[in-house]
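#struct-pred
JK: can someone run the complex with zinc ion? inputs below
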Amino acid sequence: MKCAVCGQRDAAVMQRHTGRALCRECFVNDIVSRVRKEVVSFNMFSGNDRLMIAASGGKDSYVLLDVALKLHDPSKIGVVTIVEGIEGYNRLEDVEKVRKLASVYGVDVVVLSLKDYVGYTLTELVSLGFSKNVKVSPCTFCGILRRKAINEVARGLGYTKVLTAHNLDDEAQTIVMNILRGDLFRLVQTLPNGPILSKLFVRKVKPLRKIYEEEIAVYAHLIGYEFQTSDCPYLRYFPSLRARIREYLYKLEREKPGVLLELINRVDTVLVKYVSHYANYPELPRCAICGEPTAYGRKYCMACELLMMLGIKPSYNLRSHINVG
Ligand code: SF4
Ligand code: ZN
Ligand code: ZN
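RT: done, structure tokens with the ligand placed:
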């Protein structure tokens, strides 16, 4: 079968949500041009921005780096990866793949381990939590500390945007979760131009938010990414509401391809009207320990609170451990 776009080359990929069979080149071009369109329509970044890509090392962040290198000046791109330190789950191989791609374009890669950042690996924090009967899931520790570290690294190095590799499936789950919770603020925050309530936050954007996870996997395969098979051992603690929503949305998408993309497009159209509503909200207060932003009415940020629950005196070490390569 010939490609539905160029009509010249043999089709290699079936793009489910459009029902088209595409050749390798037209598929890759389609992804890059859809990301470009999303970046432009929300002004996610422009020529002068310095972009820091938050990379886990998995396929999504590898694809994000590849696409960003096609859309932006490589001398204005950096990568940060946080090594959590999870026993039985060695991400260094994955990080190495990202580092290799980055080094071809002379892109700086910052690797920061949680051990260096807070003095404990994630596995050590989780064991402490179990021993003290603290009912917080490993994913909560992981997510909160990673987000805090990435923001501080990006800000400290003068990056103006943080790019995360969330895909369409992630975005649809977040939207449905926040609709079920009735959380309008978090819904508006899914927009790339959503409200930022502290000067200390570097704006985060998700250029892959309209690309299906399946398409990202195909793209990764086509550009030579080697998949690793091991999963994080804490995956079973992944928030159960999100896991259930994910299953349900997969089922919907299988029955009606394109339905999740349509959902995000429609929700975006409604939410943009609410962005200005948050424009005059006051700046978030600062944590009494680390000085980073925290929620209204709170004395400490979530990271400091979590560490204190484990009996750890919070202190964060960035500068002496940043390794720019
Ligand atoms: Fe972190 Fe949870 Fe993901 Fe493991 S599954 S890497 S603990 S967020
Ligand atoms: Zn083609
Ligand atoms: Zn704090």
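RT: quick notes.
The mean pLDDT is 93.
The pocket of iron/sulfur cluster (ligand 1) is lined by residues 84, 138-139, 142-143, 232, 234-235, 238 (CB under 6 Å).
JK: thanks, will look after standup
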